[in-house]
Write a structure and sequence with these properties.
By secondary structure, the chain is mainly beta. The protein has three helices and nine strands, in the order βββααββββββα. The strands form two sheets. Strands 1-2-3-9-4-7 form a six-stranded antiparallel sheet. Strands 6-5-8 form a three-stranded antiparallel sheet, with no helix packed on it. The longest helix has 6 residues. The radius of gyration is 14 Å and the shape is globular. The model has no long low-confidence stretch (mean pLDDT 95).
Length: 120
């Protein structure tokens, strides 16, 4: 493995595009990074559940929100808003949606999630 690896997210190894979603995936050695772009009106239960199934998102997430705002509701009833400039960690078992009219752009660093998110 090289001592230094770098990639441009605009030249991904893979792109997935479920409804109102763009996920660009880049491999860096054993790690995977994904840029997630969510359009206004995006909601996990409406845009991703039809692709992956289940009652709630079962992927863990570790990331950084570069723009926009997300509302998260965990299966245990916990709720939070995540805004641009914030980092986040989500356990499996949640729904989420874009708040307002601004596109959400985030970076996901949970390698397994970045590899498999929104893939049927």
């Amino acid at each position: 493995m090289p001592a230094i690896e770098h990639r441009n997210m605009s030249e991904p190894d893979e792109t997935r595009a479920p409804d109102k979603t763009t996920l660009e995936v880049v491999q860096l050695g054993d790690a995977t990074v994904a840029r997630l772009t969510l359009q206004p009106g995006w909601r996990w239960s409406e845009c991703i559940r039809p692709v992956v199934g289940g009652q709630s998102c079962q992927a863990p997430h570790l990331g950084y929100l570069a723009s926009g705002r997300l509302h998260i509701v965990a299966d245990d009833g916990t709720e939070a808003d995540i805004s641009a400039g914030e980092t986040y960690r989500l356990e499996p078992g949640h729904d989420a949606w874009v708040v307002g009219d601004e596109t959400v752009v985030g970076l996901e660093f949970e390698t397994k999630t970045a590899e498999t998110y929104a893939r049927g």
